[in-house]
Amino acid sequence: MTKGLRFVLVLVAMLGILSATALAAPPADLNALAAYYPDKTPVFISFRTDDAFIETLDALLQRVNSAIPDANIPPLFDALDESIADSGLFEDGDFQSVVRSWMGDFASVGIISLDTAFDDDRSNDDETPFLFAFQSTDRAAAEDFWDTTLLRNPNNNGNERSTVGDYTVYMSEDAHPGAGVVAVGDDVVFVANLPEVLPLNGMGGLGSNELFTSTLALLPEPDYNVTGFVNMGGAFRKVFDMPEMRRQPGMALFQDLFNSFPAQAFGATILDDRSLTLDFVQPYGDMMEQMQAMGFDVTMVGPIDPALAERIPSGTPLVLHSTGLAQSYRQAMRAMEMQMNMMEGDDAEAARAELERGLSQVRVAVRAATGLDLDEQLIPALDGDYIFYLGLNAGLADATSMMDLMKQFPVEFGIVLEVSDPAVIDGLVNGLVETIKAIPVDDDVTIEVNEDSIGGNTVQVVSITSGDMPFPVEIVLGGDGEVFFLGTPAAARASLNPDGGLPTDPQYVEATGYMLSNPSAVLYLASAGLQPLVGVVEAASGSSGAASSQAFAGALSLLSSSSISMTYEGDVSMGRAVWTLPE
Questions:
Q1: Which domain, by its residues, includes 565?
Q2: pTM of the predicted structure, to 2 decimals
């Protein structure tokens, strides 16, 4: 690929990689260039390239500069102008006069086929065909740009200009695979790595492909800055068709399953001018039908109960709240059972026996630790929600030295399991306490278990002291008939005697406003509860503490709240990741 062509693709990358943070456009407009791509294109991404996008992006990057001065991110238009100047091809030119004079508001890139990428010949990987398409507003200006870039370039590798149908084509007659070829039309410019990829003989069919349009239509927002479509079913079929894959035990099961692997779509945008948002969707219809026919349980897990968030202390910076623990266990057991049944050959019986032995050991360990039968008692009681949360000890805010840090257990955490049978809660608490008491310890380690009461609920407090630890570790085990709790004492007081909890936290309220409706899983992160770490970083970093803490404080200043939420609507899986900047 020539230096000039690489220079253009670098410009495209600068725009495309960062385009998730601009003003948005409807997917139909953003993907107008899909009409030029073959209908079976497996990977296709579209993004904005207009000046409004660049200006919005630049404002965001300069905000990063203000928070983290060492980032040294130059103004984006200056960086684009510098790229033009560094190319040495355009005297006194800048981005506006050289590129914007012909480049429109949208661009797309697609991988036309994954055959060479997923075959067993590594020597042809660089022949995987790709196609860039740019909206063009001025054909004459585009041709002048490519004349300069490819023909007047001192490093011209034999590129010549010709006319093919309605297009001006730039390529070398003896171009090797991957050398690059360009075609300029009335309102579009193509850049490809192989001549046969150029759609010079008419439009493709991706833009009207029902799978493509229907999958993108599942994205929840009306407008995006970047959208992507990935259909890996064909690639998976080729992978599982390889001789070395077919020889693996049980591969027939997965080969049949991945024949119907669904397409995925993603979209990136900004909500309310400060919430960077990335959405994913994947329709599982055909695959779920096949999984059901194969004996899998394809029931989608239900939504979490948002009321349980009151059991999480307000100000907690890190939370995982999900459901479906029991169902996930059952599905995993079914998958292992099916895999064992499909094993063949001389070693199959030994492999099945080894797997059965492992499962039996797990069941025995659970019985020993809790006094409960894993399959008959524990798992059936865990069909509700589960929560893991992690915070910082309030005393860290006053720490100014390593000695201060070592005076206290640094974190607060809690594990909350919604349990349908109160007897199971009692079994878990009593079984775990007895297991802890039976742990062999050295002479300088002491483990004590004492009874306490929180919110009218009897709990067990496990205290561990050691000559090697500067502070005792206290863990609370208990429940209130609805949930089982394991965690630190401060967390236990919040979870077993709730008083508003996380739903009263402004940052959590902010984050919930951007989560998907009725999520089945939520991962939440907030900056306020992490502020004590600024002092911890300084205290722990020695002579470089001030600089390190300043950099960490700068990074925190770019975060108000963040979340990842997952949900199911019918047979469609949806996910959303959000990073909200402070106001």
A1: 306-324+384-422+468-580
A2: 0.87
